[in-house]
Amino acid sequence: MRAIVTILAALWAATATSSAAFAPETSLRPEPRPDASAVVRASANLGFDRWIAGFRGRALARGIRADVFDAAFRGIGYNADVIARDRSQSEFTKTIWDYLDTAVSATRVTNGRKALARHRRVLDRIEATYGVEKEVVTAIWGLESAYGTFRGTTPVIEALATLAYDGRRGRFFEGQLIDALKIVQAGDIPPAAMTGSWAGAMGHTQFIPSSFLAYAVDFTGDGRRDIWGEDPTDALASTAAYLARFGWTKGQPWGVEVTLPRGFDYALTGERIKKSPRDWAALGVRDTAGRAVPNHGRASILVPAGARGAAFMIFDNFHVIERYNTADAYVIAVGHLADRIAGGGPIRADWPRGDRALMAAERTELQERLTAAGFSTGGIDGRIGPKTIAAVRAYQRANGLVPDGYASLDILKRLR
Ligand SMILES: [Ca+2]
Q1: pTM
Q2: Which of 42, 43, 80, 170 has the fewest CB atoms within 10 Å distance of its CB?
């Protein structure tokens, strides 16, 4: 269990590397291939070379063979481009509707249906083996690499070594670097072919090294777990294995768009409150066709943009997708893209499109002002997480507002 928690923390850290708040745009990893002229060439760096010499001893002590280490580090240099990307924290966070417009665009839906058709046989076998629907696996593939189009071209050993040396989150990246060397040592991939995002997420479905070691599978049966090459089979099976490991329930939706009745008590929204679909139906919650939602197990009501946006009844599978990336917007995008690939329609409700996202300084200010007003956000980190949402909700309730937990600019202005 401890191992799993560590891996999860590592995965979250990697997916959240450049996110200030929920910044799910970073989940559309990896970035487009950089223009060759813009690539900052690895530069000689004396301190970096000294660090490698010290790290070599630590890696060998962890069981990496000297010949494997030396081959992997041949030609490796300090990669300034990686650090530049690590430093470029996005000032703006996308609203969920802007994010979904990109993540579940008509093009991504069309390409997803084509990709599924092209790989249907292997996706059927993966679904039969791991019990994860092929549309869900395909949707994650679509968000992580645009169905294999953008798998990342950064040399992973060099990127992780640079990040480990840089030290902002050095311990985490040194651990990932050791795991990357273990993957090379196991013979899954030659070091020069081990490419990925600037933060070390690799292949079709963007596994970081620790997740690869724990969950990647050889589905083709050739003795190598190849998530990097043209053939996506091992990567797609590895994603299904990952979701299965975290408790995916086949046949259960991730969530269902619902309508809430006039006068609905928004204090009942949020992931902490779970009821059976039958109990929700008794409170007037219906699907968009006006029917009670079938019983897929206990569920919560999520209103990611407050009372003026779409509402979803979410089931346990929602939390399984969270293991890939904890941002609600990411999970909704994966689930909704899967539904669309399967032939479903768009989200029916409107979003409060006149609102803009809070900037980083505003998110921090919101937390400071809520805390000062007696509604603790459990710390000031600029991230709108469950504690900040709960604080917003408590503030709204105390001030006679709809307690939907939506951290909007209106709330910040009221607090000022
Ligand atoms: Ca294989």
Answers
A1: 0.87
A2: 43
